[in-house]
Amino acid sequence: MSAPKPLWQTFLRFLAPLMLSNALQSLFGTVSNVYLGQMIGVNALAAVSTFFPVFFFLFAFVMGLSTGATVLIGQAFGAGKHDRIKIVAGTTLGVGLLLSITVGSIGGLFSRQLMMLLATPADILDQASRYARTMLLTMPLGFTFLLMTAMIRGVGDAVTPLLALALSTAIGLILTPILIHSGGGITSPAWAAAASNAVTLIVLAVYLLRKTHALAPDAALLRHLRPDRAVLGQVLGIGLPSAVGMVVMAVAELVLLGLVNGYGSEATAAYGAVNQVMGYTQFTAMSISIAVSILGAQAIGGSDRARLDGIVRTGLAFNLVLTGGLVALIYLAPRAVLGIFITDGAVLDLAKGLLFIALWSSVPFGLATTFSGAMRAAGVAVTPMLLSISAIVGIELPSAVILSRAIGLKGVWAAYPIVFCAMFLLQMGYYLLVWRKKAIKRLV
Question: In the chain, how many domains are there?
Fold first, then answer.
């Protein structure tokens, strides 16, 4: 009988395809912005960047649903209760579709008013409104895709979502320049994403059915699209606090964007480029947190507390090595990295200065999300959410306002390291001093 593999190997085997998946998601947005910036101009990049906080705001609700569902699926999988998996998945998909169709339809009708509320500069308002309308109307396809790939990971399968994302990204990257050349303009990336999601969902459904996968969209799963109230309550009990936490972060981003927009379209373009770069470091940190949450849920399902503690330690170590390593690499060549998105020299110089202020804070951000991910695996989401909200409302926003008045645009970006360090200290303190001393019970 062979000895069990070290935990770090198991963690890495799950984390690697998860990180590649998140990198592919970032890649499509990155290359699309490169196409827009290089083929249309800086104003197109600024217009797309203006919509980012809105997308994040809506994305938070679906991520909350997927978080709750993934924890329950992970616990059910760890406990060997496979009959519960499709009940959870069907309920989550049904609610997600209803939510995304409703919000997408209403948002699509009032996209211009929404962009005006964000104080979008007048010279990019029309472009931003067209892009927002297309993104909102095609949102159900994207959110269904996100929910499916997230829930598949709950059963320990990180490879299938990676293959699906690879296909979707390839289609999107091929279609985007074709649509731009055909006169699609700023909405080209949005239409390309919608088409790629539609095709990939069809291919994914066929693949899962042929493999008789635990989450194949068969009659049993479709039957459960009508939500189970008890299961929905459990999903929301975990997912809603997570979603609220993300929404508060999105609202904070809207406030910060409003401050940035006050410095003109060049500042908005720099904001977009820096957010793209920080997205890679933060997605690395978030991938580790997701791995901690899913593997932790499986350990809780199997009533293995010692393994859960090991998973947390492994997640912290990977954050220091991977997130910290990526931050260091970007700091070695910031102009080269930012130059992928920006051709204007003045905007590039501005973005470089902002990047130096904020990028390193992705490391404490990752450490904080590791602790919150472990607690979420046990269904504990309210307290971590309240700690994050306290840091955002009580520290980040006041810091951004006060420092922007004192030192200008750089003061807005200084709020990021301040709040992420505060989050790390709060989450770690609660985890070590309170939560870790409590008994853990599985939810399924």
Answer: 1
Structure confidence by residue, pLDDT tens digits, 295-306:
999 999 988 888
Query: What is the per-residue pLDDT for 207?
Result: 94
On whether the CB atoms of residues 359 and 277 are closer than 8 A, the answer is: yes
Q: Give the range of the structural domain holding residue 363, as residue numbers without chain letter.
A: 7-437
- Report DSSP letters for 271-313, one per residue: HHHHHHHHHHHHHHHHHHHHHHHHHHHHHHHTT-HHHHHHHHH
Query: Is the separation of the CB atoms in 70 and 238 below 8 Å?
Result: no
Please tell me the distance from the alpha carbon of residue 143 to that of residue 198, in angstroms, as a whole number. 11
Q: How far apart are CA 75 and CA 58, in angstroms?
A: 27
Helix, strand and coil in the chain, % to nearest 5: 85, 0, 15
**How far is the CA of 275 from the CAs of 69, 86, 94, 135, 250, in angstroms?**
28, 36, 32, 19, 13
Contact 438, 300 (CB under 8 A): no
> Both tokens of residue 288?
């580790």
2, part of any domain: no
Amino acid letter for position 126: D
The b-or-e profile of 313-334 (16+ CB within 10 A means b, else e) is ebbbebbeebbbebbeebeeeb
Residue 298: strand, helix, or coil: helix
- Domain-located, residue 34: yes
| E strand or H helix at 189 | helix 188-210
**DSSP state at residue 81:** -
Q: Any alpha helices (H) in 211-228, and if so which ranges? A: 219-223
Would you give the end-to-end CA distance of the chain in angstroms? Answer: 31
Kindly state the DSSP code that residue 226 receives in the 8-state scheme: S
Best CA proximity match to 26, nearest among 258, 226, 267, 278: 278
C-alpha neighbours within 13 Å on the C-beta side of residue 217: 16
Low-confidence ranges of the chain (pLDDT < 70): 1-4, 26, 28-29, 32-33, 35-45, 53
Tell me the DSSP string of 379-442.
T--HHHHHHHHHHIIIIIHHHHHHHHHHHTHHHHHHHHHHHHHHHHHHHHHHHHHTGGGS----
The answer to whether residue 442 is domain-embedded is: no
Q: What is the pLDDT of residue 366?
A: 95
Residue 443 lies in a domain: no
Span 333-388, pLDDT tens digits: 888 888 877 777 878 888 888 888 989 999 999 999 999 999 999 989 999 999 99
